[in-house]
Structure formats: structure tokens, C-alpha cells
Known about the structure:
Elements: E1 14-18, H1 22-33, E2 37-41, H2 47-53, E3 57-58, H3 61-66, E4 71-74, H4 81-86, E5 98-101, H5 107-116, E6 122-128, E7 143-150, H6 154-165, E8 170-173, H7 176-185, H8 187-200, H9 210-224, H10 227-235, H11 240-269
Parallel strand pairs: 1-2, 1-4, 2-3, 4-5, 5-6, 7-8
Antiparallel strand pairs: 6-7
Helix pairs in contact: 7-8, 8-9
Amino acid sequence: MSSSSSSLPLQTxxxxxxxFGTFGQFLAKTMIKQGHTTRATxxxxxxxxxxxxxxxxxxxxxxxxxxxxxxxxxxxSILSLSEVLNSMPLHRLKRxxxxxxxxxxxxxxxxxxxxxxPENMDxxxxxxxxxxxxxxxxxxxxxxxxxxxxxxxxxxxxxxLHIFESExxxxxxxxxxxxxxxxxxxxxxxxxxxxxxxxxxxESTSMNTKSFETLVxxxxxxxxxxFDLFSGLxxxxxxAQQELMNLEQSFEKVKQRLLKKMSERQSLSS
Length: 270
Ligand code: NAP
């Protein structure tokens, strides 16, 4: 792990966003505030919203690719990444570009980007460990995990990372593999427990303990994210299945301990 800070000069970037859903819009607002130029393309027509934000919206991906982008920022769902990238006529790119993804899993986009992109394109894999809710009052001290997968133009890459550094993010350099290992045991686990609590229908009560309040918040934050996102964390992180099994086994162990204790007490009293 290390900081991305460097003494390289910084440049104002032209950033093309692919996937202008919740998270793409959230990131765009800070990039615009910092003076970078953004443009977007997406499956859904966001022309009206983009007009309000003063972000050019491209319904057609060809002029989007031919626009003068320093960075192409991939903000699509985990599940649609391959389909989206494979449907793009990447040979229409006019110049050497930095591709950045923000997916919540990292080995999968790393592999797909290396597979589909022309060799002369740079690749930076990132995961901002926050979203529109946790980052609504600023990004200070929130982690930005990244791996410079194939970076030749260091100035452009540093300028992109500086977007997060200058907002006060904690910059965490880590391999995509290590990210997925840690995320399966942290982010995927908390999403899974949040979804289980939602399945149980837990609600705030008039006698909440602090711990129960934490559970209600966990349920709310897990269900605020799309089910596509949650299932992407499972399907495209090779470490997630083991953690789901660990959760199941641990649940069973705790249950067995309780049942054992109960039967010991019953046999004592009889
Ligand atoms: P999401 O449900 O993971 O992704 C929604 C985006 O994917 C939208 O832009 C949507 O396009 C696009 N999309 C979905 N299915 C598609 C398909 N079949 N073809 C083309 N595009 C498709 O929700 P999100 O919260 O906006 O997340 C976007 C990305 O950011 C994900 O990879 C997620 O892992 C990552 N991320 C999210 C958060 C967060 O807090 N939300 C935090 C860190 C990273 P349209 O809108 O045009 O339909």
C-alpha cells in the first residue's frame, strides 16, 4: 500500500463516462466541480439530466469514442461490463487513452480490460470504497483502492488519482487480487448480512439498542444498492463463495452451541 502522490505536473482532464447511472452521476459531479470536462454515454437516455448538468450526452457510442477523451471511465454494473465493452467499436478510438474502471470487484474488470483493449491503451483499476450515501458530505478519509495495471503516461494517471487525493481520500494501492480477497471478507460479507436482515424484515423499534441501530443501518445501506451490484460482488469475485460458506457454517455453529446449552440446562432440571 502506498500513496499515489507524486511530484508530476497535473493536467485538467477530458473524461468520458460509460454508464451514467447512480454512481457515474455521483462521480461526475465532483469531477465537474474540480474543473475537469466530462461527457457521458449510457444504455438509458440521460440527455435531459445531462443537459441540466451541462454534460454532453452521446446516445451513439461512436462519436463518444471519437471525442477527444483523455480518460474513459467505466461505471457500468459488474454484470454488464463484458457486454458493454464488447459492444464498443474500440478501433474507433482516435488516440491513446487511459481506461479506468470503478467496479466493486477488481480481478474481473482487470482481466476484461486487458483482453478487449488495444495494447496501446493504459489501464487503471480503481474501487472508491464509498457511494452517494456515505460520500454525500465529502470524501475525506474514505478509501480509494487502485492498481496501476498498465500505465505508461504517468502524468495523466496521477492527474486522475489526484481527483480523489484532493478530496481527502485515503489512497490505497493494492493488487486487484488482494482487493478481491479483502473485499469478499468485508464488503461482500456486510452486503450479505444486510440482505439477510432485509429478508427477515427487521425494522427500527421504540427500544433500539445501539447495536440494533447498526443492524438497521446495515440493512438500509445494503438494500440501497442495486441487486445487480450485490450479485456482481458474488459472481465476479472468486473469493466470495468461500465467505458465503463460512457465513453459513458459522451460523450453524452458533446455533448448535445455543441448542447444546439449552439441552444441557433441560437435562439438569429434569
Ligand atoms: P449498478 O446497478 O451496479 O450499475 C448501474 C449502471 O450499469 C448504469 O449506468 C446502467 O446503465 C449500467 N448497466 C446495467 N446493466 C446494463 C446493461 N445490460 N447494458 C448496459 N449498461 C448497463 O449501480 P451503480 O451504483 O450505478 O454502480 C455502477 C458501478 O460502480 C458498479 O460497477 C459498482 O460496482 C460501482 N460502484 C458503486 C458504488 C456505489 O456505492 N453505488 C461504489 C463503488 C463502486 P443505465 O443507467 O444506462 O441503465
